[in-house]
Model the fold of this input.
Amino acid sequence: MNIKNVYILDDRAILYINGEDAKEFLQNLISNDINKVSDVNSCFGSLLTPQGKFLYEFIIIKHKSGYILDCEKPQAVELFKQLSLYKLRSKVEILNLSNEFVVAAFSHKKFLTFDEAKDQPGFTIKYREDPILLDPRNKELGARLIINLEKLYLSLKKLDLHDAELKEYYSLSHSIGVVPKDLNKLKDKLFGIECNFEELNGIDFKKGCYVGQENTARIKLKNKLSKRLFPINVINGKLHEGESIYINEIEIGKVLINSDYPFALIKYLNENFDEKVKFKTKDALININKPDWIKN
Done:
């Protein structure tokens, strides 16, 4: 990622959770510990089904008296509805500020040029009143600036950042092994822990109960994690959502995202899995890439 490049993530949405009960409200729902979120630290988290299946993911940033949720725009409306269902009598206000705020991403190297910056995922500083954070999932994804749309381009000019092709950022995210878009294709199809949320700093196994906690903890503690979400690359042919992946006629996984930045749920502990070989689907020849930050 070039130090002067900035990527306007127009596919991201901003929800704002505010009110007297905002902290407790989020703590009872999300897979991470809201106590980690402060003026100097942001975190990654998810909302799961009661069975522990993936529904939504987001980055959580402290802002004024509440919390910003930076989420994928196609998930924002349903996430808003889901949070509103859980609200009940909580003294919480949930706002969709996506028409007012925007997310811009730039390099890890650029982030470290700020005087107050620390080289740790989630570390958060302020540029004037706007939060800048090193991506809490993986710092190689760079930093994120959450800013009012009206101030965006003047701020980018002062920061000496220049608009670059968004597909460069998507490609980087895919190569690292972090899903950049099309998250709705994962909904209710795999467990949150199978999305590598532990390695992406998105699950806290020491916090109290949250939605989906029981199955998530059971998979972890009983060492039942046998499948993971991995990026795949098409060598030739065409992928189809939901189709099986084979090696020597043995099924090794299933395509979940078949778009420009595809991902599949892979039986990565299977003796037939070898990331160095080529795999087949019905109409394609592919490579499966195990991210280097997954150690087992």
Summary: The first strand starts at residue 5 and ends at 8.
